[in-house]
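# step 3/5: fold
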Amino acid sequence: MHRIDVEMGGQRNEGLEIFTPRGEGSSTFDQTSYNSDGTVEHATGSFDAQGRYHNDLPDSRATLTFVGDDLMRASWERRDARGDWVPWMEVELTREAEPHIEIRSKDDHSR
């Protein structure tokens, strides 16, 4: 899970995005974003052999490349009116705080 806080085209969007692995040892994830405007988006993501993460939605997709521990770059494409994929935007994401990862078992949640 991670927090979203972005500004695009002069509009700010905040939300939470949850990544759920599809199965034991899988490199594919179901992604659900809960946005501050009340919308919910679903996507699928997966890692390729080079360690890049691919984010796929019906009308947009991204390839995310990890650059060191604190930087990630994303190349986005979207579908044009003919349904062809065209370049959309380039994004750099920089970590601003230390990561906090907490793994809980089913038993931890039932207490």
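# step 4/5: annotate
The mean pLDDT is 85.
# step 5/5: archive (pending)
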